[in-house]
Amino acid sequence: MGYIEDNLVPGEEVVTRTHLHWIILIKPVLLTAAVMAVIGIIVSIWQNNSWFWLPLLVIVGALVAGLIGYWVVQSSEFALTDKRVLIKVGIIERKSVELILNKIEAIRVDQSIPGRMLNFGSLDITGTGGTREIFANIARPVEFRNRVQAQIAQGDSYRQGGQGMAAEQA
């Protein structure tokens, strides 16, 4: 069981989920490629056999960075339930946010051109009292925002309908 399942209240159901986008794994790959290119140039210029271990060290470093990135992607959870938005990011240092739907004032999506092409971006959630949480590199952020807004609207219409019926019965 994950963080989301462990923190659901009785009767609460998950409506949708998203996760961190795989794009966060690109930086270690590009860094490794750049370092390998520099090492290749140095080795070809010096043609010294004492540099043979350096590419191996870079590859091991890239694998470690890639595994850490993969672990971060797999350990982060983003969920919308019928009552709230639950978000947990981090492995050793954990940041968790739980916002009740009727306490969300705004939810904004920021996407760059690559973000629009690859369907990732940042979620900027503002709650009542000025609480603001920003989460970067989220997969399908527009879809997640739309589902949150639809769930808020559904809750508003339910509350308004319930208040109207209570007033009619009184």
Mean pLDDT: 82
- Distance, first to last CA: 45 Å
* Shape by Cα distribution: elongated
Strand order of the largest sheet: 1-2-3-4
The DSSP helix count reads 5
Order of helices and strands: HEHHEEEEHEEH
Tell me the major beta sheet: 4 strands, antiparallel
Helix content: 40-55%
Gyration radius, in Å: 23 Å
Strand percentage, roughly? 25-35%
* Total strand segments: 7
Could you list the spans in which at least 5 consecutive residues all have pLDDT below 50?
Answer: 164-170
List keywords for this structure.
alpha+beta, four-stranded antiparallel beta sheet
Report on the architecture of this protein.
The protein is of the alpha+beta class and 170 residues long. The chain has 5 helices and 7 strands. The strands form 2 sheets. The protein has a 4-stranded antiparallel β-sheet with strand order 1-2-3-4. The chain has a 3-stranded antiparallel β-sheet with strand order 5-6-7. Helix 2 (26-46) runs antiparallel to helix 3 (53-75). Mean pLDDT is 82; it is low at 164-170.
Gist of the model:
The protein is of the alpha+beta class. It has five helices and seven strands, in the order H-E-H-H-E-E-E-E-H-E-E-H.
SSE inventory with pairings:
Layout: H1 3-6, E1 14-18, H2 26-46, H3 53-75, E2 77-81, E3 84-89, E4 95-100, E5 104-110, H4 113-118, E6 120-127, E7 132-139, H5 141-169
Antiparallel strand pairs: 1-2, 2-3, 3-4, 5-6, 6-7
